[in-house]
Amino acid sequence: MLSVPAGVFPAPTPVAIVLPPVGSTPALPAHMSAVGATYDVLPHETQFASFATVSIPFDPNQVPTALAPLLLRASDGPNAEWQPVTAAQAISGARMQAPLRSAGAFVVVVPSIPPTQGD
Q: Which pTM does this prediction carry?
């Protein structure tokens, strides 16, 4: 879900949130695990005149106790990589919410827990 206040776009702009095609987003960092699907807020590279709020669903049952989920955004371009969304993030039920100034691909992750010896 994307909450877009009036005046975010200088002209009428169609916006969509879709599941991206397989392989169209960069691989997650080795130390992160997704706890939900990746979502594309389109069109990519769209800059907002003010903040819009994205709300990305995730599975809270996949979040280990004592770990906090984190929202990542994929940078655009040929060397795209995942970066933490640095704006304040909030959890509302099974959704991660954050204010944004641009569209792109988003996913909720948690740090991977390495197996303990003997597992």
A: 0.84
